[in-house]
Structure formats: structure tokens, C-alpha cells
Design brief:
ligase activity, about 190 residues, five-stranded antiparallel beta sheet, alpha+beta, 2H_phosphoesterase_YjcG-like, Cyclic Phosphodiesterase, Chain: A, ligase, 4 helices, 2'-5' RNA ligase family protein, Cyclic_Pdiesterase, 9 strands
């Protein structure tokens, strides 16, 4: 989602993103691995699968965005995610990631629905669900990340998605969870 963009300083504007959180112990493990590669964003970005990349919105639009995300979540159902191995977007984009072996179709369907209505906007690249583990690092570090996570695997269910907000301190925090088939709840913490 949710890459490193400058904190929004304009009054009345917020930087948001929408993503499927990767649950623990998988999420904390991958975040620690990202930190071990020296990625300065490792502790600023919770481990996730992006549905809406960082997007600046007017604060006045947040109620409509919330209603839109509730509608999307209400009509969806949980689906399995299977993470297997590593991949890269290089040379197009300096990213190494953990790949999805199962759950791609579910992510694509939910992403398309999330990015409709008040969140519709063009993307710079075609959507490809993944979990970033190294971003904008030296090539040798990117190569090491790719090799070290080539055999990684984890399975979990996507229970819904979360709305994240980029704080003035540069940290992305879960603001609200949208549970498939159910509704929304404040995010933990």
C-alpha cells in the first residue's frame, strides 16, 4: 500500500491506504526480515497486501470513504491466502516481495471494488498483489532478500481489510478494520 510518502501537511488533507494485514506470526516475522535488510521503512509500514496505495484525500471525504468501504466489506467473504517464495519488480521498480500462490483472484476482486467510487484513481502500474520485503535498497541487498526468502511460505485467511493513515511522524497506522460480511471496527490499539 502503503509506501513511504511524505506526511501530509496541508490542512484538511489526509494520506490513507487500504490493505489486507498479514497476521502474526507471519506479519511480524516478515517485518523483522525487512528490517534485517536495512529497509528504513520496515518499522513504519505494517506488513500487508495493498488494495489502495497511498492516496491523499480531503478530510471531508472520509465519511463517504468509510461508507464505501463498509459496502465493499459487507458483500465479500473470507478467502485463503498462501504466500510462497520471493519475486521482484526490478528493473521496472526497485522492489523485492513475497509472492502470493493463492488468493490472487480474491485480492484482485476486492482491490477493484475498493478502488471504485470515492477512491477511484489511476495506478502507475498494473495491480499485482504481493508483500513487500525490500524497497529502494542497494542491488546486492535486494538480491540477498530475494534469495533468503525464496523458500518462504505462510498460509492464512483474509478476514477483511484495514484502512491505514499516514501520521505526521511517518508511521502508517491501522485506523479501522472492515470485516468481510460483517462491518467495521476500530483497529486494535
Amino acid at each position: 500500500m502503503v509506501g513511504g510518502i511524505p506526511a501530509v501537511s496541508a490542512p484538511g488533507r489526509r494520506a490513507i491506504g487500504v490493505a489486507i494485514p498479514v497476521p502474526d506470526p507471519h506479519g511480524s516475522y516478515l517485518q523483522a526480515r525487512r528490517a534485517s535488510f536495512g529497509d528504513p521503512l520496515a518499522h513504519a509500514i505494517p506488513t500487508h497486501i495493498t488494495l489502495l496505495p497511498p492516496t491523499e484525500v480531503d478530510e471531508a471525504a472520509l465519511d463517504g470513504i468509510h461508507a464505501h468501504l463498509l459496502r465493499v466489506a459487507h458483500t465479500e467473504r473470507a478467502f485463503p491466502i498462501r504466500l510462497r517464495g520471493s519475486g521482484t519488480f526490478r528493473p521496472v521498480s526497485p522492489v523485492v516481495f513475497v509472492a502470493l500462490a493463492e488468493g490472487i483472484g480474491g485480492c484482485e476482486r476486492v482491490q477493484e471494488r475498493v478502488m471504485a467510487g470515492p477512491l477511484a484513481r489511476p495506478l502507475p502500474f498494473p495491480y499485482h498483489p504481493h508483500v513487500t520485503i525490500a524497497h529502494h535498497l542497494p542491488d546486492d541487498v535486494m538480491d540477498r532478500a530475494f534469495k533468503e526468502l525464496a523458500g518462504y511460505g505462510a498460509d492464512f485467511h483474509a478476514w477483511g481489510f484495514s484502512l491505514y493513515e499516514h501520521g505526521l511522524d511517518g508511521i502508517w497506522r491501522r485506523h479501522c478494520d472492515y470485516i468481510f460480511g460483517d462491518g467495521a471496527v476500530p483497529a486494535p490499539g
